[in-house]
Amino acid sequence: MSILRSSLLVAGKDLRIERRSRVAMQQVLPFGAIVLVLFAFALDPDRGLLSRVAPGLFWTAVLLAALLAVGRAFAVEEGNAARDGLRLSGLDGIAIFFGKAVAIVVELAVLEVVLGLGVVVLYDVEVHGLLLIVAAAIPATIGLAATGTVYGVLGLGVRARETLVPLLVLPAVTPVMLGGTQAFDAALDGRPGDGWPWVQLLWAFALLVVTLGALAFGPLLEES
Amino acid sequence: MTLKWLTGLTVVSLAVTVVLALVVAPADAVQGDAYRLMYLHVPTAWLAYLAFFVTAVASALWLWPRTRSTTWDLLAGASAEVGVIFTGLCLAMGSFWGRPIWGTWWEWDARVTTTAVLFFLYLGYLALRRTGVTAAERGKRCAIAALIAFADVPVVHFSVTWWETLHQDATVFNPKLDVHFEGFWMPFTLVFAVFAFTLLYATLVTARLQLAELEEGKEERELERAIERRVRVPAEQVPV
Amino acid sequence: MRVPSRVISLQSAVCLLGRFPALAGADLEVNAGDVVLLAGPNGAGKTTLLRLCAGLLAVRSGRAVVLGHDLASDRRAVRRSVGMVGHETFAYDDLTVSENVRFATRAAGRTREDADAAIVRVGLAELTGVAHGRLSQGQRRRLSLAIALARDPRLLLLDEPHAGLDAEGRAVVDDVMANAPTEGRTVLIASHEVDLARRFATREVAIVAGRAYEGRTAVAKVEPLMKVSP
Predict the structure, then answer these.
(1) Who has the most CB within 10 Å: A63, A153, B139, C228?
(2) Which pTM value belongs to this model?
């Protein structure tokens, strides 16, 4: 079976599990929303501070929620020795990588739309430069999902996986955090020219992680 | 033996460095004597990145089937352990040096921030190493993690540098910690300090590596013994 | 494609589980069409042997060749010709019987029809829409068997085939074991229930302390060491 078909098969499997169990919808999404609320508690909501720092807060909330989404994506493979099943299945490591990453991208996309609305509503943000916002969010999400997928499989079968994987993922996605925040900032401020270079950076990061991840996933799955 | 020579050479070089840095090199026109922390800060920064580079190269050598050897895995770990110490020292030194100059304990400039991210990448890698006891268990995971982190560092550096240029204007008073070199002794001392610290790094890594190889050798022997014991099962238990 | 007649060839194979040598120099030769009973006490290495033959484990030393593939260099290639039914089902709790079997089948490059046929064969046709998490233990094992059969494996590895099954389930498994040779499958059965497996087995091998000993006498010596299965 071709890599594309295999990837779609795995992505479909993960998304079907999500549709059945609703963990992303009913747990990860609310978690992201709660983080937004916590930020409002931490910073004074009256002085317009929230709307000024909204891009950073948005990406922080997305990042933290993404850690949960990644954790869940691989917790699914721990039960019933499903990872043995994956290894026996004969699926190519590259296909499984793309499949799982695509499923996480879909979940994160929904998360970002909802949290984006949350930010607009809760932090009183005026939306400008939507094109730049979407153009930045796409590579940022791909980079985030790919990083999470490769570290997620690395964590399979490792003790203290739930704390170790976040520790590995967060420093690694610094470029996403910086790029996403700066691009969104530029868009909301009406300075799209400042934002497009960040979009390029985000694509560079995404391509780097996707390439490394695709190559590393198979060997890492063998180790788990 | 080599380690003894290395240690001796390191101690001598460090002693010379101390003399050069504190006595021989002249005081800086702008920063006075405070600048002398540079002779500690710059070498530790250099080593923080060198150690990471060594970890990455050792990991790559371990991953490549033709050059695979437990030594590479142990070297990657040893270099990371020494590297994380130097990274921490670098951040601390930067902070102590910056306090009288900046007025604050921390500034979010590109180098400091990238070094901070590097520090966390180290911590993650070292935490990962502790999850497996033998080289076989650790091997691939750690090697791949090290390489991904290593590939990530330039991207992080680039994004942070770019980020810094954006908010530099916002800070009213943000002089760089860069020092203007005058005469011969200042640059010479710096180069010598880097050399001395690199020797220190080599000594520490060699010592750590030797210790790790002893431990690994012991694990291997115990494993072989366990296999032997199982293979030579007492006659009563054999069903034929 | 000509299937080699020597399906499994292990010579002094050593396999580690962590730091423990679960297989300590196992020798085993299995030919096409054999139905081999592996009998031995808990912890002897039966499961490890099965997992090794499935291509899931690395060989530390010794020689291991399964279906013409050398496990030291190419164990991934073995997996597509192997079906395994073990302690775990390899299934996803949130997916239904049908979804689980179809996923595994399509991943192996076979069709939906193969999946559905396997589900019928194990007698789960009425439960296709039930999530794996809601199945009883016996039903889960049958699902696991369906997944294994749908791949049309040359080598079938059964770990305690009757464990947790009701009468109907046991009949299904017995049918599979009985028909395996005619279907061109080689079978390894790890089991406590020596008498049961004997009905189908063409050979018997005792597994003790990580090594394999051929023959009825060996198995007879090992029987008292095995716990009576529930």
Answers:
(1) A153
(2) 0.90
